[in-house]
Amino acid sequence: MAKPSATNPKTAQASTAIRAFYSALGCPFEVISPSDEIAQGVDFIYREMRVQSLPPNAIAIQIRPPMTGSSALEVTIAGETRFESSRLGDLLHQLDNELTIAIEKSRPDLYFVHSAALVEDGTATLLVGDSGAGKSTTCYALCVSGMGYLSDELAAIEPRSGQVLPYPRAICLKQDPPAPLRLPTSLLRTEWTLHAQASSLGSEVVKSGASLSRIIFVRWSVSHARPTMKPISRGEAALRLYQGALNQLAHPAFGLDDTVRLIERSACFELLSAGIEETVALVRRGTLEVS
User: Among 127, 173, 183, which residue's Cα sits nearest to residue 154?
Assistant: First the structure.
């Protein structure tokens, strides 16, 4: 596929609706786009989730020119207008947010965390952190290094078994990855985001999921010349995981029991990331360095 580029949604034509079918975490959804350019952008993000057909209860998402005089595209979910956007980057970002909410509502049995998820030796590692902490950049680098890929921003976990399920959308960066990392030949660049498929980085997309064994809480530190990774207590880890969860209140006991259950099965660390090569080496080796 040729490298997609940023598309101005204002130029999208409504003459031909383009339908594509996807399924994530057992939740099927259909996206109806008004142009090839928009359809290609959506498909680049969710290609690993694509399916050939959908059941009747699939989530219906339609991107269309607005009925009013606005120049922005209108996005409806299940027939309800959810937002408008005049930039491709904003459209894809908000679409992913809305899809995440819809999936969380459909799968209240799962414990969702704002986290990247990768696989090493058959077990899953979560990278948990606030926006801007470096999760996606670290995830990108770990995929390049050979770790398997489950998710970039949304970790879906079966709380009793500890199985981390795949949500393999394209990895999203806010800027080009730091040297010596390189961009793949196939990527999607919008006005303010950069998307790369994990398979184009040499990573295996793990479709079967993996058992949770390690949780790393990521922080970016401009003051650190070298990255450090150190173990943290279960109490601190439980608090941080609970803060990073997205649907803890949908679980019994406000999600506290499930949070503790996941912490008890995992080795928990704090990572202060710095140079990307050394950060990757720390995570892959699992060794500890104390500043």
Answer: 127
Asked, for residue 4, whether it belongs to a domain, the answer is: no
Indicate whether this model's pTM tops 0.85: yes
**Number of domains forming the structure of the chain:** 2
Percentage of the chain with pLDDT > 70?
A: 91
Do 23 and 134 lie in one domain? The reply is no
Nearest residue to 273 (alpha-carbon basis) of 218, 235, 204, 234: 218
Q: Three-class SS of residue 213?
A: strand
**Torsion angle in degrees (nearest 10) through CA of 106, 147, 95, 31:** -80
* CATH number of the domain that residue 216 is part of: 3.40.50
Task: Locate all alpha helices (DSSP H) within the chain, ordered by sequence.
Answer: 36-46, 88-106, 135-145, 234-244, 256-264, 276-285
Contact 76, 64 (CB under 8 A): yes
pLDDT of 68: 67
**Residue that has been written with the tokens 């970039």 in this structure:** 152
Please count the helices (runs of H) and the strands (runs of E) in the chain: 6, 16
What does residue 80 show for φ and ψ, rounded to 5 degrees?
-105, 130
Digit-coded pLDDT (tens) for 38-93: 999 999 999 999 999 988 889 999 999 876 667 799 999 999 999 999 999 999 99
Residues 6+ away with beta carbon under 8 Å from 226: 274, 275, 278, 289
Q: Mean pLDDT over all residues of the chain?
A: 91
Q: Please report, for residues 77, 87, 97, the alpha-carbon distance to residue 34 in angstroms, rounded to integers and kept in the order given.
A: 15, 14, 20
